[in-house]
Amino acid sequence: MKERILTEKIIGEFCRYLQCEEKRDNTIEKYIHDVRMFADFAGNRDISKETVIAYKKQLIEKNYAVRSINSMLSSLNSMFSFLDWPDCKVKSIKIQRQIYWPEEKEMTKAEYMRLVNAAKRKGNDRLNLLLQTICGTGIRVSELQFITVEAAKNGEAVVSCKGKTRTVFLVRDLQKKLLLYAKDQRIRSGVIFITRNGKPMSRTNIWREMKNLCFEAGVRPTKVFLHNLRHLFARTFYGIERDIAKLADILGHSSINTTKIYLVTTGDEHRKQLENMRLLI
């Protein structure tokens, strides 16, 4: 059998394949990072299933989170499929579905409100409105580019992500806020949330600005992540509608199983549910 060495040329070919598959830039960057980590481990050795299993064992011994390990292995398995090396694929680590979310990680509505108000007090109108836009629509951070002046005028944004297109409705109050902000910033058309150079804001820039609000808002840094705003939208919507299929469509999920992850309660809520059962005499 021909010797199989993971070279920079092969990694480059895999990168171009992902681009042709129209994967998002962030996804490609993540896949290539995972592949290069494995390449550093493998060195000039011939790659076999045993090599990958040894790498998996090393990740476990280094105390990587199970979800992180599975994500890395998924990247490798994708590359092995591309290279037609199916015998190198390894199984992910089985995880019992989480029934509750740690309180130190999940953002509450009260904490969200404190962040928004803190941004207002600091005079950061852009961040103030950006937080409300994500939490008020449930969109991904990468989808902020579809929140345009035209979308605000129409009351809906047509979002294209992961090969799918969906319509995200903007409620009237949000419409007014977006149009007023655009007018104040002299943004006549196109993307509303932009930098001074006119480019769409990056995830890193937004996250850094959010972190700067933690002390002012009295919110733990472990809770201040952009995706937590999307989680808060999902839990709030489901608490009112109790329609998980509709919520999956709104969030742009292909599987309801993904949506279920967003609806996991906190440990405190789970504890209260158990206490309300009143089965102890």
What does this structure look like?
The chain has 281 residues and is mostly helical. Helix content is 57%, strand content 6%. It contains 14 helices and four strands. The chain has helices at 8-20, 25-42, 49-61, 66-83, 109-121, 125-137, 149-154, 172-184, 203-211, 214-217, 226-241, 244-251, 256-262, 267-276; strands spanning 100-101, 156-161, 164-169, 265-266. The strands form two sheets. The chain has a two-stranded parallel sheet with strand order 1-4. Strands 2-3 form a two-stranded antiparallel sheet. Helix 5 (109-121) runs antiparallel to helix 6. The chain is globular and about 65 Å long. The mean pLDDT is 89.
Describe the structure in brief.
Helix content is 57%, strand content 6%. It is built from 14 helices and 4 strands. The protein is globular, with a radius of gyration of 22 Å.
**H/E series, N to C?**
HHHHEHHHEEHHHHHHEH
Poorly predicted regions are: none
Rg over alpha carbons:
22 Å
Number of helices: 14
Average residue-wise pLDDT = 89
SSE map:
Blueprint: H1 8-20, H2 25-42, H3 49-61, H4 66-83, E1 100-101, H5 109-121, H6 125-137, H7 149-154, E2 156-161, E3 164-169, H8 172-184, H9 203-211, H10 214-217, H11 226-241, H12 244-251, H13 256-262, E4 265-266, H14 267-276
What characteristics describe this protein?
281 residues; mainly alpha; two-stranded parallel ribbon; two-stranded antiparallel sheet; 14 helices; globular
